[in-house]
Amino acid sequence: MKAGVLESIGHLAVKEVPDPQLEKGTVILKVGACSICSTDLRIFHYGHARIQLPQILGHEIAGEVTEVGEGVRDHKIGDRVTVTPTVACGECHYCHKKLPHYCQRRKSFGYQLAGGYAEYLFVPSFAVAYGALNRFPDTLSFTEASLAEPLACCIRAQKSSQVGTGDMVAIIGGGPVGIMHARLAKTNGAGRVILIERDLGRLKGIPLDAIDDIIDSTRTDPSGIVAHLTEGRGADVVMVACSSAEAQVQALSIAGSGGRVNFFGGLPPGASSITIDSNIIHYKEVSIQGAHGSLPEDNRNAIDMIARGTVKVSDLISHTFPLDAIVEAFRLAESRHGMHVAICP
Q: Can you give the CATH number for the domain in which 190 is found?
């Protein structure tokens, strides 16, 4: 089969690789779509401690079951499924405490396991047993379903940050994940959603009905505008939905007393050290937390929200590419021209 293989840092190529072989308890998918995450772009440039190259990347995956191994009861040929990319071991300290998202021996598609930039995906037995595959209805396209993964991450982040009724929510970063966060926040009852973005051209043609205010951070100081919009209080929740150290520092100045700041976007190696005014945390009792990844239940909730139209994602896929054009697709995704980019093998 064909696959997009990261052979070394900065070198991505389409290659012929062996077809996956069915085993007891396993499932094989024909990949319908695998969307490009900003994490994949960081891995392309910097590698990752959990990835041994060469490796097939891609973790925002939707596909169709083509083969089912002996003993598999919950899936059948023809099922259309999304993939929860991170699989917990079930045996470590955190798994025993029912905190599988902190699993110390977790394995993830596109990291230790071959990912979705390929014609087919091998799902090992431990991932099948974990519940990594979740069915989605025929009413959804593969590209829409592939966005269940980033939406699931948003769901877990907002649950962790306790986004709720009446909250003033500021989102830094107006890319596809920032728009998802805005729409999800309104679904969760947010009273006001403020989007902070430095390239407003990205938002052209995107319905912004979930967003009450947009701040161009290249033209004005967001902290002053947020203070004005919230009658001097600041935001209850600040979601940093971009890979920017400057945005992480800025988030503290935007948060109000008792505010919750979530560093949702990771930073590249060597660029993750920031300097903050710790008195903001002390006197305003602001909390800072991170969020990455999701659980199977988050993925199921994301599929349900997308299928019911509670959180629309179809307009966030701006470009699709065949697998043979994956290098071009990565270039476009990195250029930030448009929204989400999907590979459709």
A: 3.40.50.720
CATH number of the structural domain spanning residue 316: 3.90.180.10
Which is nearest to 61 in space by CA: 120, 125, 124, 127? 120
Please check whether residue 153 is in contact with residue 67, taking contact to mean a CB–CB distance below 8 angstroms. no
Residues 171 and 209 in one domain: yes
Domain containing residue 186: 162-290
Q: Do residues 288 and 141 make contact, with C-beta atoms less than 8 angstroms apart?
A: no
Strands 287-290, 255-263: pairing kind: parallel
Model confidence, pTM: 0.94
Give the pLDDT confidence score for residue 337 in this predicted structure: 80
Q: What is the structure's pLDDT at 268?
A: 82
Residue corresponding to tokens 């308890």: 25
Q: Which of 112, 148, 76 is nearest to 340 (CA)?
A: 148
Whether residues 279 and 303 fall in one domain:
no
Residues 305 and 279 occupy one common structural domain: no
Q: Which two tokens stand for residue 194?
A: 């403020």
Residues 104, 167 share a domain: no
Helices and strands, counts by H and E, the chain: 11, 18
Q: Which helix H or strand E contains 340, and what residues bound it? A: strand 340-343
Sequence-distant (≥ 6) Cβ neighbours of residue 132 within 8 angstroms: 83, 84, 85, 87, 123, 296
pLDDT tens string 264-321: 998 888 888 999 999 999 999 999 999 988 999 999 999 999 999 999 999 999 999 9
Give the integer Cα–Cα distance in Å for 318 and 340.
6
Which tokens belong to 273? 């050290």
Q: Please check whether residues 9 and 121 belong to one and the same domain.
A: yes
Number of structural domains found in the chain = 2
Contact assessment for residue 64 and residue 345, using Cβ atoms and an 8 Å cutoff: no
Strand partners, 193: 169
For tokens 């938002």, name the residue.
203
189 with 249, same domain: the answer is: yes
Q: What angle do CA 262, 263, 267 make, to 5 degrees?
A: 175
Question: Per the omega criterion (within 30 degrees of 0), is the bond before 85 cis?
Answer: no
Whether residues 212 and 73 share a domain: the answer is no
Q: What is the pLDDT of residue 144?
A: 97
